[in-house]
Each structure stands twice: as structure tokens, then as C-alpha cells.
Amino acid sequence: MSDSAGDLGEFGLISAMRAVLPAAPLAQVGPGDDAAVLTTPDGRVVTTVDVLVEGRHFRRDWSSAHDVGRRAAAASLADVVAMGARPTALLIGLGVPADLESSWARELAEGLAEEAGLVGAGVIGGDVVRSDTIIVSVTAFGDLEGRSPVLRSGARAGDVLAVAGRLGWAAAGLAVLSRGFRAPRVLVNAHRVPEPPYAAGPAAADAGATAMLDVSDGLVADAGHIAQASGVEIIIDPNCLVVADPIRDAAAAYNADPLVWLLAGGDDHALLATFPKGATLPAEFTVIGSVRAAKTPGVLVGDAPYAERGGWDHFR
Amino acid sequence: MSDSAGDLGEFGLISAMRAVLPAAPLAQVGPGDDAAVLTTPDGRVVTTVDVLVEGRHFRRDWSSAHDVGRRAAAASLADVVAMGARPTALLIGLGVPADLESSWARELAEGLAEEAGLVGAGVIGGDVVRSDTIIVSVTAFGDLEGRSPVLRSGARAGDVLAVAGRLGWAAAGLAVLSRGFRAPRVLVNAHRVPEPPYAAGPAAADAGATAMLDVSDGLVADAGHIAQASGVEIIIDPNCLVVADPIRDAAAAYNADPLVWLLAGGDDHALLATFPKGATLPAEFTVIGSVRAAKTPGVLVGDAPYAERGGWDHFR
Fold it and tell me: Domains, chain B, ranges and CATH?
């Protein structure tokens, strides 16, 4: 049995985690000083923070520490690539109970390291404190490499709407877990560890994307964020949404509508973007709709507003 | 009576906080998109994260939301100036219970805004989630303006040791509160809101500081961090430590040794630095000791190791 976090102490815990975390290639000063120093070749830095709380964003009986680490890193890294930037580094804020096995923290670090490694990013520092429930705060950094950041506000009438990555998989996986099952694994794993299409973010920027975000609240809700910020109406064509076999099968088994997972489920961290009509889309993107002028910004699915609760509010 | 965080919802809460948070002059993209874009004139960015947890770092019956905001910002901003950088921006991760009055979150934001305003920094984004206890994660950013970062590892034999800012005030204030009192206010307030000597950080770098950190674990413990990183012995001269009247009075009233607060108390966020002998120190700094070669790095107070538990480990 491994030591507890309390046995190891703050500095022991940091040392155990640091041993498995990769250095950031752009770090001039890494972990261990008052602050890190990160080189910013572009002259700007893209940065974002996401906080995951045990019991709200993950459960220890549903996800391993490694899964939580990957998911925490993915949530922030997806935000960086959704601006059209290449991720470079992470800062980790961690709160853990004193009686937590220290191996949990080490495996969390291994998960963070694995996900960061997918994009060549490293960890440049962090803070470890005691907390009754586990909290993981991940600040991510990215470099725009000369690109203009792709905002939510740039969609224009006439643009096409396209998505890269999965829709509905994490929501279907959560539905499976919530019913007490552990299979199909492919869905459960999608809830545990999202697979954001990291390379598609900078590629979309290079291809002229006019607006982009990562789908974390749900397709309709996040399309709504683009619609509001851009002052346009977005029409999602449900015929363009492909329901994968595992999702169709799970929906049939639970007598559920699979489209609800695709339209309202978050946490897959797909990238949703708009492109000028006629633009050559990066290979990862599939057209799923269009953008038109509107007096009242909003989202239609087919020819009607979407009736299901679309979007994720942590307090509702 | 104000609405609860749950009544307002995630987006309402963010909107209420954003209304009082100052924009960062260097922000190209501020709050409201997937990530922020911060201009980095130096070509590098200094960054650090600190996490504050209710019940561990603050109590709602001892500190107002405004106090907590100021303190959370100060903890991270002090780390930035301790590198010799000028603070530019903050990212805020916030976890709050659904039944928390929304006014608490707004007042927290006002405290964050006030402290950031002291150094001309703004808020470039954040994340708000639900959590059973309040957690505040502050990522701070700074610009080195061409300076070399001042690390913990640069102290050399022959250097002088100097401090800017207060020592022992926050610890004395915590002792007062722990005994159930609310006065003397000057000490209680020092616990609630530290006063880091922000300008002294870049000034120390300009004056040739060889090593620097902010005193958050305690003078002896943090001097030990410099000693370890630099491979030197640091001698603190207790005769150079001035015990202010309120601290002397409180210590007398509690039959305590005021030097313990000065030597082992953290959370004032003073700046501790080493300078080459003969350097002209910035006005904020007072010499309190010296640096010499040592086979075994460590800290002496006068001519002996310090016997009190020096340093703050969140798990002990």
C-alpha cells in the first residue's frame, strides 16, 4: 500500500509528481522557482484555465487518476487549439485530501504527462494544497505561430459550419456509467478520456476559419455561443450528423434518442468552426450546417429551434 | 438578500464578476472566448498559479470575500515580482457552492480587481464551477521587460541577504484570530490582506539581485530554499530583525516569542533577496544577513540552526 499524501507531505508529493512530468521545450525556467518563465516566439501567449472538481466533473470509482489527468489536460488544451494556437505548456493547481494515496497523485501526473505529450507540451509548474475533495486546475498555454486568433465572433452569413472530432460519445458513456454499467468500453472510455482533434485547431486557422470553439457545453449550446458572439443564425443539418454504431446501439438499449447525445452532450471537446463558403476544409472537418443573417441570433436544428435543454451550466 | 450562485447560474455569475474586473492593458483577447491572448513584449512570459481553499487558507468568518480576493491575487502577484517581472494579468479559477450568496462572488471579484489594480494588471479570463467548498485558483502573468529572471539558485558566498516588506505580521494576526479576538486590527488585517512590496521585485532585479523569492513559507524556510538551490549557507542576523510595536505587544499579551512569528510565520509575502556585497540596494530593502560558502547548504539564525519548525507544509 502506498503512502498517503499526508505522509509524503507537500514537497514529497510535488517531487513525486515532478518526476513523471515532461519539461516544456519552450520553458526558460521550469518548476521549482516562484514562477516559470516561458518563451513566447509569437510575441503573444494564448492561455486558459479549467477547474475539475471531484464528484462534479469526475468520480474516483468511474475514472482512474490517469484518466482524470488526461481529461483535465485535454479540457484546457482543447481551448488552446480552438483559438488556432499550438499548445506549449501547462501549469497545474492541485488540491488533495491528506488521506489520499500518494500513488493517485503520481498517476494523475502520468495522465497529465501523457495528454500533454500528444501535443508536445510540457509542465512548467504548479501548486499543491490540501483540500477535502480533489480539485485539479489546469492552466494551458499556446503559441499562435503568427496566426490571428480564431474568435467566436467572426462567423458571417454565407459561411459553412463544420465539426472535427466526436459528438455525443462522452454523453453516451456517462449515460452508460450512470446506469451502473461499465460497457461498452468504447463509450465509457470516451467519457473518461476525451479525444480532442488537436491538430485540427491550427489547421482550421490556416484554412481561414472565421470562428471556432471547442464543444464542451454541447453542440447546440456552443453553436449558440458562436451565433450570439457573431450576431448570426446557425443552422445545423441533422442529416449531416452521423450516429456511430455504439451510440445507436446504446440508445436503442436505453430507449433513448441518440441525437440528444450528439446535440446536447458536451465533454468530447470536438472543434466547431465556421469557414467561408468555398474554403478548402482541413481533412478532420465535416460540414454540418450553415450560417445566415438573422435579426435574432440563434441556432436552428433543421428548420426549428432545438427543444432539448442545450448546454451545460454547472449550477443547474 | 442576494441571489445564490445557483440562482444566478454559471453564466450569470461570470457576468456579475466580469462587470467589476479590470481589463488587462496587454490583452489582445480578454474574457469570453475559449482562451485569452496576452501580448508578451519581452518575448517571454512569467507565470505561476496559487490555489486557496476555504477552511485551509481562509475562513469566511475571519475574512470578507473582498479580503479573500485581495489575498488570492497577492499570493500569485508576489510570485511574479519575485522573479523580477512586472505583473500584467490574472486568470481566475473559481469553485463555489450553489447556495453561496452571489454577492460573495462579486465582492471576491472586487478584491481581485483592487489588488490587480495596485500593479496595473487586469483579468483576462477564468472558469467558474460548482464545488462544496470555495476554491480560488489564481494564475498570474508578468513581463520581464528585458531583465534576466531572478532565480532561487543565484546566491553566492559574500552576498548580503536583504528583505523588503513585512515579516511576522500575518502570523501575529492569525494568532490573534485563533484566540478569538478581532483586534489589534493592524495585525488582523495583515492576515486578511498581505501587502507585498510589489515594486521592490523589479527594482531588486535592476539592482543586481542574485537570488530572490517571496516569503510565503516563513523567513527561515524560504531562506533555506535559496540556500538549497544555490548551494550556500545563509546567516540571518536576528539583531537586524525589527519587531514592530503591535507584534511586540501581542507577543507580550500571549506570552509568546515575537521572533518566532518573524522567523517562521509566512503569508506576508515579503521579498527576500541576495545582492552582491557593495550593491546599492533599492530603498525598500534592509540587510538582515549574509551568504557564505558551505559544504552543507542551510540556514543559521545568529550562529545556530533555527530550532522552531520553520516552514509551512500544507499537509503537516
Answer: 6-143 (3.30.1330.10), 160-301 (3.90.650.10)
Distance of CA A271 to the CA centre of its chain: 9
Q: Which residue of A has its CA nearest to B35?
A: A48
Say if residues A52 and A72 touch (Cβ distance below 8 Å).
Answer: yes
Contacts of A5 in chain B (CB under 8 A): 315
CB atoms inside a 10 Å sphere around CB B103: 15
| Nearest-neighbour CA in chain A from B56: distance (Å) | 7
A91–chain B Cβ distance below 8 A for any pair? yes
Number of Cβ atoms within 10 Å of the Cβ of B179:
10
pLDDT tens by residue, B137-180? 999 999 999 999 999 999 999 999 999 999 999 999 999 999 99
Q: Enumerate the residues of chain B whose CB falls inside 8 A of the CB of residue A34.
A: 48, 78-80, 82-83, 152, 212-214
User: Within the 290-309 window of chain A, which residues sit less than 8 Å (CB to CB) from chain B?
Assistant: none
* Residue A282 neighbours by CB under 8 Å, 6+ apart: A164, A200, A203, A204, A206, A207
Lowest mean pLDDT among A155-159, B17-21, B80-84, B202-206: B17-21
Structure confidence at residue A306 as a pLDDT band (50, 70, 90): confident
Task: Compute φ and ψ for B294, nearest 5 degrees.
Answer: -155, 145
Residue B310 pLDDT > 50: no
SS3 of residue B194 by DSSP: coil
Predicted confidence at residue B306, as pLDDT, reads 86
CA B166 centroid distance within chain: 11
Q: Say yes or no for a CB contact (<8 Å) between B91 and A48.
A: yes
Is residue B184 within 8 Å of B302, Cβ to Cβ? Answer: no
Q: Do A315 and B46 touch (CB under 8 A)?
A: no
Alpha-carbon distance of B79 to B173, in angstroms, equals: 22
DSSP track, A203-231: HHHHTT-SEEEEESS-HHHHHHHHHHHHT
Percentage with pLDDT > 70 across chain B:
97
Query: From the candidates B4, B28, B29, B34, which should be mutated to test the interface with A, based on the most A CB atoms within 10 A?
Result: B34
> Which value does ipTM take for this structure?
0.95
Sorted by sequence, the CB contacts under 8 Å of residue B292 that are 6+ apart come out as B157, B158, B232, B233, B235
Residue A6 identity (one-letter amino acid):
G
Residue in the block written with cell 479570463: B125
Contact residues for B75 (Cβ-Cβ < 8 A; gap 6+): B50, B52, B138, B194, B216, B269
Cell numbers at B102, concatenated: 452571489
Alpha carbons B215 and B311: distance in angstroms, whole number = 10
Of B82, B135, B141, the CB nearest to A95: B135
Place of cell 493517485: A104
Q: For residues B111-138, give the mean pLDDT.
A: 97
